[in-house]
Fold this sequence. Notes:
By secondary structure, the chain is α/β, with parallel strands linked by helices. The protein folds into two domains: 3-198, Thiamin diphosphate (ThDP)-binding fold, Pyr/PP domains (Rossmann fold); 217-249 and 265-283, no CATH class. It contains twelve helices and six strands. The protein has a six-stranded parallel beta sheet. Strand 5, helix 8 and strand 6 (187-193) form a beta-alpha-beta unit. The protein starts with a helix and ends with a helix. Residues 1-10, 212-217, 266-276 and 278-283 have low confidence and may be disordered.
Amino acid sequence: MTLHDLARPAVLPADLPMDGADLFVAQLVAAGVENLFINSGTDTFPVQEAIAKRLALGLPSPRVVLCLDEMVAGAAAHGHFMISRRPQAILVHVDVGTQQIGGALHNAQRSRIGMLICAGRAPYTVDGGGEFRKGKKSHIHWIQEQLDQHGIVRNYTKWDYELRSSRVAGDVVQRALQVAASEPAGPVYLVLPLESLLDPAPSQITPAGAVRADCGSRAPSRADRARRGSACRCQSAADRGQHGGQRPGDGSGARRPRRSPRSARRHRRTTDVLPDHSPTLGG
């Protein structure tokens, strides 16, 4: 199987029903994701079934790489991005798998490594709407329910989201990968509820440009530089306390000490780290 095959937005045949997990995997293929680094659990079976279905039908699919520890999965995706500059996907088990990948997530954030970290979550429903595979079927599904699963990793990711509907799985995956790859690159986190993976989904792949915001894809324009320069001048004026020669708010009339050349250089660097169109600023 070649990268060209992986890049084709193949979908399931029209006579086969498609669920959220099928659309999730198809969108990974369309986005050029070559590997799914997985540490499986009771919540990951819809994605595994979707991949097995595609392989049985001869359709392109990400290569499944079983990782016996989530730290290994994170390190593998880290290394792949360093070589390819393309984010890869990771699938871990609910809250505990999210916690276990913590060290690798820390490394990815510090190194500006793009990766898509996905995790299951406890089912929302009790009876699954009458469908056996959905819903809370074991006591563990109640114990695994956390108040804010995203909060475990929110300080270390550029973006986090929960797939609330199977119908938008394609849009969400494309957006996640776009944010992860946009400079400055970084990890993103996506929660996959069981119901969203098993509910019916449309057989439509989201084109790469459909949800791409104008971030990380162009150099700053003259207008961008002018706005940034104006903001820096306003900040400098406030720092010097030019309103009556006073420090803002103290009424003492004392001027702020001038920055040393080293401090001034550091100030310029920090104001220029993130351009106006950075995905970190634009969300």
